[in-house]
Design brief:
Length: about 325
């Protein structure tokens, strides 16, 4: 199989294997990726944000047969990649974030099996890799990721959406996305959601998901005006601290500020010394925000990346204003 997997290949993980999955915790794509791996292999799993990747991977069990890393964009984490072979005989890396030549080289050196695409989200890629070990209805889970992540035009995404009812998966996926965007969605609840998704339980039948989604929808209507009122607009970029909403949600709501082409939402990342940042853009932005975040965050001693119009990163809090100035200069022009 080598160190990459073609779009037509499948991975067969024997049922007796010791499997552990580490996936992104902040959106349906990451949770569904973990749920699909669990459904196919009965694995244990851990969920992480970008700021906690090193710690979570350091605490994964050892002597595994398989470690699956999904939706985590490790391109800038070369030291993390170098330590992956210590955890398992086989490492499967499934992702849809930007992956540089240097990142590919690091993964190849670590003998990691890579399934990467910019045209299909991580959950769609996981579904395709493991589809021979998944129940037929699991395609619906992949669709939750496809309808809530940044729009893409991949062949596999089209296949997933053609195999599902768009109205139903859009409802279930966005219900899940709303619930995940609230600060009341604790780690234990996230793990419970993954376990239930792995058994193909529908999000609307999870009482906690429905309750949190309803609360969050009402909160977003209220917060949209508050964010708009307190946003600082520099050139054509709206900037605000996230406060009560998830970073990505806040950044999306900030795009409603008149005459802006991009937005920045920020908040502390676990400790006052680090600040998490989420950025969003419109087609008028004219920049690939994922590439821009890699460049700017690296320049101020942080890390970042993402997609064309949705990206994020972490920077030292002491250099937040420097980051904002650079971002405004690049995008505002």
């Amino acid at each position: 199989m080598g160190n990459s997997v073609s779009h037509n290949a499948r991975v067969d993980i024997p049922s007796v294997s010791r499997v552990f999955c580490v996936s992104h915790r902040d959106d349906p794509d990451g949770l569904v990726s973990a749920a699909l791996v669990r459904s196919a292999t009965r694995c244990h799993f851990a969920l992480t944000g970008y700021e906690d990747i090193e710690e979570v991977l350091a605490n994964t069990p050892r002597s595994l047969d398989w470690l699956v890393v999904a939706d985590l964009g490790l391109d800038e984490r070369r030291e993390v990649i170098g330590r992956l072979p210590d955890t398992a005989r086989h490492i499967l890396y499934v992702d849809h974030h930007l992956l540089s030549v240097e990142g590919k080289r690091s993964l190849r050196k670590a003998k990691v099996i890579v399934r990467h695409s910019l045209k299909d989200c991580a959950s769609v890629l996981v579904w395709d890799l493991l589809r021979n070990q998944l129940p037929q209805e699991a395609v619906n889970l992949a669709a939750y990721g496809a309808v809530t992540d940044p729009p893409v035009s991949g062949r596999l995404t089209r296949e997933v959406l053609l195999k599902t009812n768009r109205d139903l998966v859009a409802y279930e996926g966005h219900l899940l996305a709303l619930a995940l965007s609230t600060d009341k969605c604790t780690t234990s609840l996230l793990e419970e959601i993954v376990s239930k998704l792995a058994t193909l339980q529908l999000p609307h039948r999870m009482s906690a998901v429905r309750r949190l989604a309803d609360e969050q929808a009402a909160r977003m209507v209220e917060m949209r005006k508050q964010l708009s009122d307190r946003a600082q607009v520099r050139k054509r970029v709206a900037i605000a601290k996230a406060r009560r909403l998830a970073l990505g949600t806040s950044a999306e709501l900030l795009l409603s500020v008149p005459n802006v082409v991009a937005s920045v939402a920020y908040d502390t990342a676990g400790s006052p010394s680090r600040t998490r940042i989420s950025v969003r853009g419109t087609d008028e932005c004219g920049r690939h925000l994922g590439k821009l975040m890699i460049k700017i965050t690296r320049g101020v001693g942080g890390t970042g990346g993402g997609h064309m119009l949705a990206a994020g990163g972490i920077v030292p809090s002491s250099r937040l204003q420097e980051f904002l100035g650079l971002f405004v200069r690049e995008v505002g022009r």
